[in-house]
Amino acid sequence: MQRTTAHEPTPVSPAVVDALERVCERAGRRWRRVVSRAGHDAASLAPTVPAGMLFVPSRGGVSHSPEEHTDDELVVTGAQALLDAVAEVIEGTGVHKQGGHSSLDLLNQLSQKEVEGQLRACCASQRWAVAVASCRPYATPAALYQAAEQAWWSLHETDWLEAFAAHPRIGEREAADSQARREQSGVAGATADTLAGLADANRAYEERFGHVFLICASGRSADEMLVSLRERLSNDAETELRIAAGEQSRITRLRLERLLR
């Protein structure tokens, strides 16, 4: 065998790759690292600017071919992951500005009541919003996210239930605010059978646990959420409360990230 050409591998930015993994993990998107052996523009960009790549599955694994096809839902999921990762990288470097001030600076400068109002759109627990607003100023987004997480897990069950109650049922997008509708975008286009299944399972869940079913819906299809809903119906009440609280924590983090954009 005769070698006709060879190219040295081009490493991409660890910060970009880490951001892609984090946003996928938080949204419940399945992911894994891969090495690409094809030529990409990122290989030319990587020596001078932070670069990374995200691939979405093609039907049958066929790529770089007229037969290549990726379902629209996967394209949208990939595009949202890219957008989320870019926003996270920009926030991490402090590049994002509004009129000379970062979004975090503006949050630090608002009154206590104003900040509490913005925070309650991220998590409807009043005690949580007061605690997070009271810890200002935050030097970095990461400091805000850490404080929000700590405040959430220090709350009582009644505070968690207050936050849960602000969420619409999965599948009832018309009854939700614009933020929840965006998060439940995976419900759009769901079949009538899936929507009926969600309605039945939601009722069964609420009868069993006394609160709305909570799941971080970003990046999940209606069918995937229905599977999770049915599986969680078998949990005991204490276990399910902790799981729902964890889902609220993920939702809160994503909403805080959007707040700082």
Radius of gyration: 21 Å
Shape: globular
Measured as a percent range, the helix fraction is 55-70%
- What proportion of the residues form beta strands (DSSP E)? under 5%
Low-pLDDT ranges: 94-100
Count of beta strands: 0
What is the level-2 CATH architecture name of the largest domain? Orthogonal Bundle
- State the oligomer: single chain
CATH superfamily of the largest domain: Oxo-4-hydroxy-4-carboxy-5-ureidoimidazoline decarboxylase
CATH topology of the largest domain: UraD-like
Mean pLDDT: 86
Structural class: mainly alpha
Q: Order of SSEs, N→C?
A: HHHHHHHHHHHH
**Count of individual domains:** 2
Distance between the termini: 53 Å
Q: State the CATH class of the largest domain.
A: Mainly Alpha
Structure commentary:
With 261 residues, this protein is mainly alpha-helical. It folds into two domains: 14-57 and 70-93, DNA polymerase, domain 1 (Orthogonal Bundle), CATH 1.10.150; 103-259, Oxo-4-hydroxy-4-carboxy-5-ureidoimidazoline decarboxylase (UraD-like, Orthogonal Bundle), CATH 1.10.3330.10. The chain contains twelve helices and no strands. Helix 1 crosses helix 3. The protein is globular and about 70 Å long. The N and C termini lie far apart (53 Å).
